[in-house]
């Protein structure tokens, strides 16, 4: 069971996963060594699964942010998944969901032309409903 200190460690690591253990310890009122042991335990228990970076997609030239509701045409979804693997540079997340659609696809594109090409190819395997992000 996680205590308040464990939750604070997770909160601080979520803000900055590169924080030094001594600095993290000061924030959660532990020594650097005790903090390091707590983090190791959280990792060993699978609570912390890994560390990541936050990428600015706009600076990478990916200016079109789209959410695409996917409606499969058949019970066989392999062609859809294969298409996504072939175009993984655009795919941020592919969630299998319940509700009106089968999947919710989150993508980023450098231009409307690439989005259009992606959608034309996608439509060979599934139907879709497109939403474009206006602001965050």
From TrEMBL:
Domain of life: Bacteria
Keywords: DNA-binding, Transcription, Transcription regulation
SMART domains (UniProt xref): HTH_ASNC
Signal sequence segment: none
HTH asnC-type domain: residues covered: 2-63
PANTHER family in the cross-refs: HTH-TYPE TRANSCRIPTIONAL REGULATOR LRPB, LEUCINE-RESPONSIVE REGULATORY PROTEIN
Name assigned to this protein: Lrp/AsnC family leucine-responsive transcriptional regulator
Species the sequence originates in: Metabacillus niabensis
């Amino acid at each position: 069971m996680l205590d308040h200190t464990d939750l604070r460690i997770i909160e601080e690591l979520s803000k900055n996963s590169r924080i030094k253990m001594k600095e993290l310890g000061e924030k959660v009122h532990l020594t650097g060594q005790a903090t390091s042991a707590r983090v190791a335990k959280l990792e060993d228990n699978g609570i912390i699964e890994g560390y990541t970076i936050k990428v600015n997609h706009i600076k990478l030239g990916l200016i079109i942010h789209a959410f695409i509701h996917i409606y499969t045409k058949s019970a066989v979804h392999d062609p859809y998944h294969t298409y996504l693997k072939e175009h993984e540079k655009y795919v941020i997340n592919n969630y299998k969901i319940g509700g009106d659609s089968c999947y919710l696809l989150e993508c980023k594109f450098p231009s409307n032309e690439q989005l259009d090409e992606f959608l034309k190819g996608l439509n060979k395997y599934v139907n879709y409903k497109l939403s474009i992000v206006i602001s965050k």
